[in-house]
Amino acid sequence: MSVVPAEVLPAGALAADETPATGAAELAPRARLWPSLCAVYRAQLSRARVARIPLLFVATFQSVGIMILMRGVVDGGDEARAVVAGSSVLVVAFVALNLLAQYFGQLRASGGLDHYATLPVPPAAVVLGAAGAYASFTVPGTVVTAVFGCVLFGLPLTHLWVLIAVIPLAGAALAGLGAALGLLAPRPELATVLGQLGMSAALLLGVLPAERMPEVVRFARDLLPSTYGVEAFARTFGESPDWAFVLGDLAVCGVVGVVSLAAATWAYRRAAVR
């Protein structure tokens, strides 16, 4: 056994030998929110791509069928605007509220949350990525429903561009609510029932004209997150829309979306540690 003087050894070798004694190696930094969100979004989008065509068909066909049925009852005016706006946002509710509640309910029951819990991904990225992927499928169906409704009821197509704001804001509000229902439900069957009830509420309270509803039902309508997206879209069908009220409704819808997504993130944290 030979002894080598310390002066002969390179400095890198001495540093490597001293590392275990001085302390443990530092862990890699935690993934940031935006890159994690994009990764989850792409993964969820590719996963759900197989069901895109039947998903769009069912959501769009349902809303178009409701407008055809309502055409025999509603002639025009404010009632027609409410029917078209509510049916268009109903496409978003079908996916963002109903299907997302079922997805997170099944994910929790099957232990899929354990997979995400082991990844260095912020909980908000998981919720926002999944919600954004599901909401993306609603864009074609919402546009087709809005155009068909305008032609059916003789409404102007001038301000359909407002859907650029209505779809993501209403989608965020409904997706956060759907994710929270799915994560808080103790069983996946209950998550499915809650999602169906939420979509039924969006159907009855969003499509039917508010003027014909009792006062109690109107109060319940104001509590529904999608109501403000419906109101903002319906106001644009007028001859001279009051854009201050449109922006106000969109702002309320955005605030509700932030609150619902924050609640979904809290529900995800709660479900992941159990």
Topology:
Layout: H1 11-22, H2 33-48, H3 52-71, H4 77-109, H5 112-117, H6 123-136, H7 138-153, H8 163-184, H9 188-207, H10 215-223, H11 227-235, H12 243-272
Helix pairs in contact: 2-6, 3-4, 3-7, 4-6, 4-7, 4-8, 4-9, 4-11, 6-8, 6-12, 8-9, 8-11, 8-12, 11-12
Number of strands: 0
Q: How would a crystallographer describe the biggest sheet?
A: none
What structural class is derived from the secondary structure elements? Answer: mainly alpha
Q: Bin the helical content.
A: over 70%
Order of helices and strands: HHHHHHHHHHHH
Give the number of helices.
Answer: 12
Mean pLDDT: 81
Rg, nearest Å:
25 Å
What is the global morphology? elongated
Quick take:
Helices cover 76% and strands 0% of the residues. The chain has 274 residues and is mostly helical. The longest helix is centred in the middle third of the chain and has 33 residues, at 77-109.
Question: If you had to describe this structure to a student in words, what would you say it looks like?
Answer:
- The chain is an all-alpha fold.
- Helices cover 76% and strands 0% of the residues.
- The chain contains twelve helices and no strands.
- The chain has helices at residues 11-22, 33-48, 52-71, 77-109, 112-117, 123-136, 138-153, 163-184, 188-207, 215-223, 227-235, 243-272.
- Helix 4 crosses helix 6 and helix 8 (163-184) packs antiparallel against helix 9.
- The relative contact order is 0.14.
